[in-house]
Fold:
Amino acid sequence: MQEGSWLPVRRLREIPPAVWALGFVSLLMDTSSEIIHALLPVYLVTVLGTSMLTVGFIEGIAEATASITKVFSGALSDWLGKRKVLAVIGYGLAAFTKPVFPLASSIGWLVAARFIDRVGKGIRGAPRDALVADIAPTHLRGASFGLRQSLDTVGAFLGPSLAIGLMWLTANNFQAVFWFAVAPAFLALGLLIFSVHEPGRLPQLRKVCFPLSLSEMKHLGPAYWWVVCIAVVFTLGRFSEAFLILRAQAVGLPLVLVPLVLVLMNVVYALTAYPAGVLSDHANRTVILGLGFSFLVAADLVLAFTSGIGGVAAGVALWGLHMGFTQGLLASLVADTAPPELRGTAYGIFNLLGGLALLIASVLAGALWDRVGPQATFLAGAAFTTVALLGLAAIQRFSPIVGQAHKS
Structure:
């Protein structure tokens, strides 16, 4: 290995083109989806006269559907031994629902489109992550997941930013902005179809009969389940980013500037996910992950005790930093610990349990906020994250090979 080859810029040249393509597929689809999602609640309420209860019901059902679907799509990709076809179906469903949003004349059409869009997200999630793990060389796994996560996060703040600009340019013409979102969705689908080539299944891999059976679950192994358990506890401390917005409002941030909270968080997230992934390829991954957990504890403490906008900005930046140092690394650890023939199932279970934990965390955070106050919400988050940190120490004792650097 040449001197200095660990540097992020040098590693960019070594990451396989298919991983780059998957990253830009995520960027384009996220941009398309976020343009619509940034405006849809307002459109439902102000244009179609929908109640806030209905909006909440639509969003809750949609996200729950996505989480549940991930398990079955991941398992199906293991059973078929094919991942790209499921990713294409998932991205295809998302792309073909996009024209429904500007064409819909009733709440029913929008509910159907939102539901199918989330089904598509659920179908593509686990197979896509397993595909990245299959394509990326072992010594570039952290860098590959970090790159995909960074590009995905660019879409997360580019979409709402474009939505704001397009609404201004079109004099608040929702349908025109929704039509604009159609183009990047189909670009993403085309890029996936023509630029990503799935590697052939290795002949030495064990044939999977029924991935979700108890006998197959045992093949996932204790190291994988340790990673899942730690991730679930950690997610209990990583509640919805909506509470960051509420905290900013509570200290006096003007309503018109509220979107800047998520922009700041996602910019920091996007800038740090790839370097953190590269670093994890050359150090013990669980140590770097522990650093990410520590950033969340710091963010919670700052947000719990701050009383000004500057303090909230610092807390939000730390929150973005923790996302950059954890999300790609957790995905890498799943790939490190799960058998290659069960990676789809492993990601499906990981995403399902993480989604359920995030739902519980957000409910607990809201209850604490209402009954005790915002300080209690963020202190509880710090407490759960500290428990997850202790779990990382335990995994090193139980299975010290987990997270070890892979040399090229």
